[in-house]
């Protein structure tokens, strides 16, 4: 099952490589990875998605928790949560396709953030599923480049991941 | 407050930490540190002949004393040479602090002379590591390193120190912190009482219990409590390779080692058990054989200080995360409470039947009862270990290398005390034995220290004979010489129809007697069984000499029992070359 694991880690050089290294060392896959400092400059928030069975996830979270740089960890998929992935996608936009791309972007509530004589660059935010659906809907156009931020997530309601 | 340079801070911090020995090798990037050690440091430094040996010596010291071993190496090759020893310590959870020199800060990343990314290279084999960025941080980082290395589940910690941070002309205020607190590191201090209560109940309801204890009992100094628990309940105990000495080896309740080369009675008892109390053990693949077939009728209670060790391979019915001393103390108290209330537990008639069954197994194929040697004067490897046991009255520190000799030593030397059996169990590092023995002997100069080895392993760090000369470390080297890489040959016999692919040395072995004499030591060659005990006693009578016993043994002997793999269970074993369960 797909999991979103989110953690606070020391904002130290090498901390990220320990987390990423653990995945390859113990044979786990990372689907997406997103990391940035928080309001507390000594802490980074790292969110990753992975597809594993329950047993392997339990072992993975235990191993991640053992890393000295990992301060706190949560599996967001255990409860109600919000997830967002942001995509920048550049497509060839000429002739009839140009109008079609614009329409599809509006339907998905995306924004065209850069316009050229032959290309559109579209920004779209949502769940990973929504972004996948948009890419599929662009099948009629020529996709030139896709950049995704990776999933960032947060629990719903009062639940917080903080010190 | 005092002003010290980075190099002086390191020397002082090691003193303040109570370090007894530094094992190391100087080089460009650590010369400022070495100069500080030379000028003013009470901690003696042991100069090894290869950095791998520094880590093994520190490791042996740590295993025997329980205190972290300390290593100091230079950058580049000094650091990479230390890697095998760090990995060895990591796999066996041995507390160690490794200080590695690094090129000057401004050169990092430029492929400078003797530059290597030590933090990167060592990342998967350390408990934690630090890259020092500012000289002022050194005392706190060193304190943290010792704290992390020796608390919770112990392990090696690397501190990488760029040369410019140790220069003598830049001084800073020094004070060594007494304690350290880290928001991201807090190992369990005690077990969950509810879980311990459940464990006590399940344990007392067992009809065929086995206590299976590992290296965690030794690391956590839990041997006395474990022995108390086992004796109170009259339950059988088996130890892992790492756990030997955690329960007295000569005690009748001891079933011997379990696992791939475990005792018949230990493996049979495990397989037929209905309740396994695992303490500081990790259900390693060399113990369980095929996990799906592991002990089908057993409920598992698993005590470990590392939550990640629990339910990693075998699911625990009752997991308890906590240090062994605290958990066993609480468990003993719960058992007292329950047995006071209900005198019918544990089920004595069931326990009697269980012991009867175990005694039958013992009588049928037990290691000590079933063994028959032929009448010739050829020396069997098992007889060497038995001779060593007699000569040292079972009270020596025994280190080993890796291979058949290691298994024979584990099987036939009955360790009655913890921290006496010192071997590389997890990583299986050939070349570990001699440097580890040096570390032990330095810690306990008045005790007998034997290194059981083979002619393959000993040659992997034989240069340390020179270190032994320099520091007069009078260890006894027991070389089980069969002229093969014995364990490789055994597998080739069993699985490759006797094709000995590159497992012999032909006629290339040195004359070990002459070799050790060249270093100023004593060498004795033993070829006949009738000479064995005499030579062994003579070796240990020479208290201040390193003695190398080059003992010619039956080259065709295999280690048995041996688990049948793949797809075998705990009870599936070869008992001899043509007999199996």
Any descriptors?
heterodimer; A: 163 residues; alpha+beta; five-stranded antiparallel β-sheet; four-stranded antiparallel β-sheet; 28% helix; elongated; B: 581 residues; alpha/beta; six-stranded parallel β-sheet; 21 helices; 38% helix; globular
Mean pLDDT across residues of chain B = 96
Shape of chain A: elongated
Structural class of chain B: alpha/beta
Largest sheet of chain B: 6 strands, parallel
Instruction: State the end-to-end distance of chain B.
Output: 71 Å
Count helical runs of chain A.
4
Q: Helical amount among residues of chain B, as a percent range?
A: 25-40%
Beta-strand fraction estimate of chain A: 35-45%
Q: What order do the helices and strands of chain A follow?
A: EHEEHEEHEEHEE
Overall number of strands of chain A: 9
Q: Label the structural class of chain A.
A: alpha+beta
- As laid out across the biggest beta sheet of chain B, the strand order is 3-2-4-5-7-6
Please compute the radius of gyration of chain A using only Cα atoms. 18 Å
Please state roughly what percent of the residues of chain B sit in beta strands, choosing from under 5%, 5-15%, 15-25%, 25-35%, 35-45% or over 45%.
Answer: 15-25%
Mean pLDDT of chain A: 96
Point out poorly predicted stretches of chain B.
Answer: none
Q: Biggest interface in this structure?
A: A-B, 20 and 18 residues
Helix percentage of chain A: 25-40%
Brief overview:
With 163 residues, chain A is α+β, with helices and mostly antiparallel strands.
What does this protein structure show overall?
- The complex is a heterodimer of chains A (163) and B (581).
- With 163 residues, chain A is α+β, with helices and mostly antiparallel strands.
- Chain A contains 4 helices and 9 strands; from the N terminus they run βαββαββαββαββ.
- In chain A, a hairpin with a 3-residue loop joins β6 and β7.
- The longest helix of chain A is centred in the middle third of the chain and has 13 residues.
- The two termini of chain A are 28 Å apart.
- The model of chain A has no long low-confidence stretch (mean pLDDT 96).
- Chain B is α/β, with parallel strands linked by helices.
- Chain B is built from 21 helices and 23 strands.
- In chain B, α1 crosses α2 and α15 runs parallel beside α21.
């Amino acid at each position: 099952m797909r999991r979103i694991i989110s953690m606070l880690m020391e904002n130290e050089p090498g901390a990220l490589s320990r987390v990423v290294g653990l995945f390859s060392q113990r044979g786990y896959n990372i689907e997406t990875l997103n990391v940035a400092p928080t309001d507390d400059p000594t802490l980074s928030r790292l969110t990753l998605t992975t597809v594993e069975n329950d047993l392997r996830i339990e072992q993975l979270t235990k191993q991640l928790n053992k890393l000295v740089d990992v301060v706190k960890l949560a599996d967001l998929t255990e409860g109600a949560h919000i997830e967002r992935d942001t995509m920048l996608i550049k497509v060839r936009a000429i002739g009839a396709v140009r109008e079609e791309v614009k329409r599809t972007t509006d339907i998905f509530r995306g924004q065209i953030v850069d316009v050229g004589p032959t290309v559109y660059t579209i920004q779209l935010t949502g769940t990973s599923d929504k972004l996948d659906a948009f890419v599929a809907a662009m099948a009629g156009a020529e996709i030139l480049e896709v950049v995704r931020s990776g999933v960032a997530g947060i629990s719903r309601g009062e639940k917080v991941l903080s010190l | 407050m005092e002003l010290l340079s980075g190099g002086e801070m390191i020397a002082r911090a090691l003193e303040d930490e109570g370090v007894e020995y530094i094992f190391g090798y100087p080089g460009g990037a650590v010369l400022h540190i070495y100069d500080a050690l030379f000028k003013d440091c009470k901690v003696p430094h042991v100069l090894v002949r290869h950095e791998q040996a520094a880590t093994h010596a520190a490791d042996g010291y740590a295993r025997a004393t329980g205190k972290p071993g300390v290593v100091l190496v230079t950058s580049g090759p000094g650091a990479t040479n230390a890697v095998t020893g760090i990995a060895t310590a990591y796999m066996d959870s041995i507390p160690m602090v490794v200080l590695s020199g690094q090129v000057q800060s401004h050169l990092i990343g430029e492929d400078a002379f003797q530059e290597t990314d030590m933090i990167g290279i060592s990342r998967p084999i350390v408990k934690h590591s630090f890259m020092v960025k500012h000289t002022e941080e050194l005392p706190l980082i060193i304190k943290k390193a010792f704290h992390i290395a020796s608390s919770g589940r112990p392990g090696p910690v690397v501190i990488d120190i760029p040369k410019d941070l140790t220069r003598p002309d830049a001084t800073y205020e020094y004070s060594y912190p007494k304690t350290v607190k880290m928001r991201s590191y807090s190992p369990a201090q005690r077990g969950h009482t509810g879980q311990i209560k459940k464990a006590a109940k399940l344990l007392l309801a067992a009809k065929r219990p086995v206590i299976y204890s590992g290296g965690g009992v030794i690391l956590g100094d839990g041997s006395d409590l474990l022995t108390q628990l086992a004796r109170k309940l009259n339950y059988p105990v088996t130890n892992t390779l790492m756990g030997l000495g955690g329960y007295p080896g000569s005690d009748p309740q001891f079933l011997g080692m379990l696992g791939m080369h475990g005792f018949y009675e230990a493996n049979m008892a495990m397989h037929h058990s209905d309740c396994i109390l695992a303490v500081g053990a990790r259900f390693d693949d060399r113990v369980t054989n095929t996990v799906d077939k592991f002990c089908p009728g057993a409920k598992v209670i698993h005590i470990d200080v590392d939550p990640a060790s629990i339910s990693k391979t075998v699911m625990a019915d009752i997991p308890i995360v906590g240090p062994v001393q605290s958990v066993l103390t609480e468990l003993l108290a719960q058992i007292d409470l329950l047995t006071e209330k209900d005198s019918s537990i544990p089920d004595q008639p069931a326990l009697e039947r269980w012991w009867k069954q175990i005694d039958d197994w013992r009588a049928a194929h037990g290691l000590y009862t079933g063994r028959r040697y032929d009448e010739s004067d050829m020396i069997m490897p098992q007889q060497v270990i038995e001779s060593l046991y007699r000569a040292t009255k079972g009270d020596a520190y025994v280190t080993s290398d890796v291979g058949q000799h290691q298994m024979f030593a584990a099987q036939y030397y009955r360790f009655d005390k913890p921290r006496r059996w010192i071997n590389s169990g997890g990583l299986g590092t050939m070349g570990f034995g001699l440097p580890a023995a040096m570390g032990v002997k330095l810690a306990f100069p008045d005790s007998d220290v034997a290194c059981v080895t083979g002619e393959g392993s000993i040659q992997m760090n034989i240069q340390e004979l020179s270190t032994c000369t320099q520091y007069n470390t009078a260890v006894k080297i027991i070389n089980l010489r069969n002229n093969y890489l014995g364990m490789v040959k055994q597998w080739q016999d069993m699985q490759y129809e006797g094709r000995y692919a590159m497992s012999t040395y032909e006629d290339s072995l040195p004359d070990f007697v002459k070799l050790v004499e060249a270093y100023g030591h004593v060498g004795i060659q033993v070829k006949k069984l009738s000479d064995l005990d005499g030579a062994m006693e003579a070796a240990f009578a020479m208290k201040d000499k390193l003695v190398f016993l080059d003992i010619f043994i039956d080259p065709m002997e295999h280690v048995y029992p041996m688990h049948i793999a793949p797809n075998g269970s705990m009870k599936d074993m070869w008992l001899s070359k043509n007999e199996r369960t």
